[in-house]
# Entry
Amino acid sequence: MKKRTILLSVKNPADYNLLADLLQKEGYRVEKLTGANKMELAKKADAVLVDEVTGLKVCSFLKEIKESAKPFLPLLALLPEKAPAEPWLNKGFDDVIRMPVGKAEFRSRINSFLKLRAQSEQIIESSEQKYKAVFEATGTATVIVDEDTTIVLANNECEKITGYSPAKLIGKSWTEFVYKEDLPLMLSRLKAHRENPKSVERKYEVRLINAKGEIRNIILSIAMIPGTKQSVISLLDITERKQAEMALKKSEEKFRTLIENSLDMIQIVNKKGILTYVSPSVQRILGYKPEELIGKPSAAIVHPEDLPVVTKGFEKILKNPEKPLSTICRYKHKDGTWRILKGISTNQLNNPSINGFLSNTRDITEHKRAEEELKNSEERLKIMFEYAPDAYYLSDLKGYFIDGNKAAENLVGYKKEEVIGKSFLNLDLLSAKELLKASKLLAKNLQGKGTGPDEFTLNRKDGSQVSVEIRTYPVKIKGKTVVLGIARDITERKKVEMALKESEAKFRLLFSEMTEGVYLHEVIYNKRGKAINYRIIEANPASEKHLNIKPKYAIGKLATELYRTKEAPFLDIFAKVAETGKSVTFEEYFPPMKKYFHISVYCPEKGKFATVFTDITQRKRAEELLKQNEYLLRQVLNTNPAVIFVKDKDSRILLANKVMAAFYNLSVEDVIGQRQSDLHRRFGADPKQIQKWLASDKEVIETGQPKHMIEPGTDSQGRQIWFRTGKYPINIGKGRRGVLVISENITEQKKAEEQIQKELQEKELLLRELYHRTKNNMQVISAMLRLRARTMPDETVRASFRDIEMKIRSMALVHQKLYESQDLSSLNLKSYFNDLISGLRQSFLSEADKIQFHFDAPEDIHVSIDAANPLGLILNELLTNAVNHAFPAEKKGKICVVLKKDAQKRLIIEVSDNGAGFPEGFDVEKDSHLGLQTVIELVRHQLEGKITFTNKKGLKCRIVIEKELYTPRV
# Structure
């Protein structure tokens, strides 16, 4: 973590040392604000502290640094108690600290401002990361340059323009990449932009040289970075666009030359009918110079009788811009005569370079005069041929076209002039497969046979296709056999047929694949026109799943026959749909099937109806079961004595039982929708307790874990009551989680527990007193035995008295331990054994210098008083036996006692010594004295344990007790 630096400027050395020491102990680096480099120090500092004397000298430059600093720089003034703070705050200081100041307050004030500093750094760092991501992700090449033209940052897009990676660009001057002739202009503009950004355009075009030495045309966009002397420059490569513009310009010059030298007259008419361009060839054809016609209406030079045809034609290509217009009309020559011109016009309104109708017109006056004579003789036939609705064409016996009517032109998209003399093969009208078919038909024509109708797909001039039906007939014209072909456009018919076929296939597939059952019916009427039955005429496969009737068995059957009913089910509803055509949807129980169905009925045609049905029996039964369950749930809720309710994360109650509502003296309906926190406030509940309840609700919702607690509450009379509450997370729909609360009023139970606890405390006091008096009485008996033993002359008798005294002392020790224990029902066996061993050692003072006792008990083990007494007697007997018999003739030795529990939780007691052990051949069961016999009896019968003796390098007695020796009583 970054170590914060604090600049400290305090004139009094003692104050400086005190404050510096406090800051350094807080983990800050402290530096003096002195010397020539104080400006640099202040720029790198995280906070600045100055006193009243030194602060006046540095406040101006500190204010300048603070205003230019990106992260927040705290400035704090250390002022005497009565010094005014306002002048310092006006100078840019953030706060004042009154001197002298307490250590805790000083640390708190400094830490709070440094937290603001850290937050400011985080905000700046986050902002820089966002702008860096935008800088790198933008699709525009961008660089940041210093005032000295050095590139300080470049994104990856720059490599596409310059050929250099961003790493290689950084540190270079951008002037290295500018085309030499453009450099002075670019430098002058950049200088002007730095001085006054509004004085020059932000964007301008310049040429750059990339890593391969290629000249690239670039549009630069420059912007200054506020608060710095750096600029952001965006570069847009328009080289390809410039090249395209140059190619277009050359192309325009080329086509202008062709147009101006063309024999045909080319003219452009705008949407208002005004001539905007006329090629120079107009002077040769009509005698006008181009400038004499440009700007005038085109109708001015068209024959009045031809104007309607021309106007209609232009209206046609206005509506259908993709289709060219072919016209033949009379134009007025400058000498007053009329010339016949043939033209092809196209709609170029969407072409911005033309923005009008482009016409290419040829003078056919002489040609038309020559045709006139022929036309008179063929006029009637020509009219019939020309305006026939079907496409008529003539071809020779090799398949080359001789003539065709307008319908034929419209059919293939070619003008007559474009097809005459060419064949299907030349024009690519047919595919290879259909060319073979056409050849076979032509072979029949050679035999003098007609053909058809035969279907073909023609490739039109514009690339589209058209379906046709063709008939051919061999005919003689002027003694020569030719083929008359009649082609009828059947595209729409084919589309309808295909659509019908696809529709039938689609609906047949849908009909077959639907998961719902579908029956199509026809209504059966009597002679009076009344519906009396209906017949199933179609059924889909899914119907079997819903009705358990195979479709083949259902089709053709009457409803009464199929369902075995006297009357057709739902006849009134179905007949009405078949008559009116209005669809109906309903859900109903169908007795013949003993099922519920969802049925949609619609009319495909009058007298028929279709049913789409779904077996909803399971859903209906589930709904009925849900209603039943809801009823049972409500009964369970309202008969439960506990307060039960559900609320959302806003404490709004969604479900409640009558007990919960009665608690607030409201009905269930009045409680639903209210916030429980509002209800608590009405009864004057403690606001802090309300916040605890809300916090526990939030914890359950967020963690998804239940929570159980004993909590206080307030009833409607303001009395404190107690609840045992369980809060459980519950899904309340739409991915939301709420809380199920079950609260049981345990106020009476709480009072009873308090009374029981009070009585237990009284009984515990009495029991403790009993243990204390028992211990005292046993100690008196022990003392009397000890005194009596001293008066006995016989050592054997004294030993017996001493043995009895030790047994009584071990039992007295049990009562002493219970008296001292917090739990009167159990005794710490580890502590008890330790005290017992210590007491035994003190009883054998004469043996203290030769026998060592070692006690090992790794953990506390608690036993009941019933087990403590026999265990104490056992340990007392085993230790006494070892002291008395293991080390004869003043022999030194060691006695070890181990108390533990093994992995199976069994109690293990081991008493061992390194003394003489049992004599050879000694049988502990038969030969041992009364003391050891007592030990064996106590272990096996009273404690239900096992005891073993090992006679090797001393004697070891191991006792294992499996049963639990302590069960808490309370």
